[in-house]
Amino acid sequence: MTFDQPLVLVLAVLLTGGAVAAYTIVQKRRSAALAAAGFGGLAGGGLRRHLPYALFLAALPILLTGLARPQAEVSVPRVSGTVLLAFDISNSMKATDVQPSRLAAAQAAAKGFVEKQPDSVDIGVIIFGDQALLTQAPSDDRAATTAAIDRAGANGGTSLGRAILVALGTISGKQVTLPEEGQQPQSLGYFPEATVVVFSDGQETGGPDVALAAELAAASGVRVQTVGVGTERGSTVEVDGFRLATALDAGLLTSVAQITGGQYHEATDAQGLAATTDAIDLRLTMKKEPLELTAPFAGAALLLLTLGGLLGTRWHGRIV
């Protein structure tokens, strides 16, 4: 416990000590006067005489301690940290089995998610196809984040592994690669306050091993939450004059989430996709915040004063 006005504590000690000393002197003089008048048997007075005064004297240091503005540090849970939104921009995200398209629906859902986050959450944007690119560094600038989401356009293949590695590099501030066979994984540090949210149909076409990238994220304390965009019945997209079939691969997205301790979320239409973002579980961190305790001290002092006044009135017909 700390005090904003510590000098008041010195005053509390001096006044309380002085009040106790004064009360003791007054009672001794009263006892002496009663003894001299032949009423020595009335000198003590017992509990009824002294208890109201004792309550008043006990209230004094408590009240003065409250005036010193005591504060205690308490741990307050809050949603905070870093969130990276990773968007699959491969050709398959042009599919219209989720209207108006998989990518457009994912962008709309992500913007709704961004709007609901408190300022204590820094949000960044990654787009990934065959390669992955950080297009907005994590910040509390919601306008910049929304603009980065809107700029995403579909083209190329899908490498979820690269998206995870770029996300880990952004979080750790290091260049992140997967270890060669027989080598130890890279040590990035531990970032339990960081979350990666992936919007994808899970149609992986190549790149770094997704499971190994997820394991590296798990070792770094980073959870990957995956949002499945698409349907199992699938659709077709036109690429370079050819029509290609594409469907949601929920298995891969579920596996990535489970490895990192995250969750897989799925919706079959744009409305359901927007609703899934409400279920994305961000980290609760504990922040130390000062809590002023003046009111509890003042309340305790008031209670003692009231009790002393009531006893004095009941036993002596007046507030002593």
Write the layout of secondary structure elements.
Blueprint: E1 2-3, H1 7-36, H2 46-67, E2 70-79, E3 81-88, H3 102-115, E4 121-128, E5 132-139, H4 142-150, H5 160-172, E6 194-200, H6 210-219, E7 223-229, E8 235-239, E9 242-246, H7 250-260, E10 264-267, H8 270-276, E11 284-292, H9 294-316
Parallel strand pairs: 3-4, 3-6, 6-7, 7-10
Antiparallel strand pairs: 1-2, 2-11, 4-5, 8-9
Helix pairs in contact: 1-2, 2-9, 3-4, 3-8, 5-6, 6-7
Describe this entry's structure for a reader.
The chain has a 6-stranded mixed beta sheet, with helices on both faces. A 3-stranded antiparallel beta sheet has the order 1-2-11. The protein has 2 domains: 2-73 and 291-316, no CATH class; 81-282, Rossmann fold. The model has no long low-confidence stretch (mean pLDDT 84). The protein is built from 9 helices and 11 strands. The two termini are 34 Å apart. It has 320 residues and is α/β, with parallel strands linked by helices. It has helices at residues 7-36, 46-67, 102-115, 142-150, 160-172, 210-219, 250-260, 270-276, 294-316; strands at residues 2-3, 70-79, 81-88, 121-128, 132-139, 194-200, 223-229, 235-239, 242-246, 264-267, 284-292.
Summarize it.
The protein is α/β, with parallel strands linked by helices and 320 residues long.
Q: What attributes characterize this protein structure?
A:
23% strand, 6-stranded mixed sheet, alpha/beta, 2 domains, 43% helix, 320 residues, Rossmann fold
How much is the radius of gyration in Å? Answer: 34 Å
Mean pLDDT: 84
Q: Which homologous superfamily in CATH is the superfamily of the largest domain?
A: von Willebrand factor, type A domain
Structural class: alpha/beta
Terminus-to-terminus distance: 34 Å
Main sheet attributes: strand count, strand direction, barrel closure = 6 strands, mixed
Helix content: 40-55%
Count of discrete structural domains = 2
Strand order, biggest sheet?
5-4-3-6-7-10
Could you name the CATH topology of the largest domain? Rossmann fold
The H-and-E topology, N to C, reads as: EHHEEHEEHHEHEEEHEHEH
CATH class annotation of the largest domain = Alpha Beta
Strand content: 15-25%
**Count of strand segments:** 11
Count of separate DSSP helical elements: 9
Q: How would you sum up the global shape?
A: elongated
**CATH architecture classification of the largest domain:** 3-Layer(aba) Sandwich
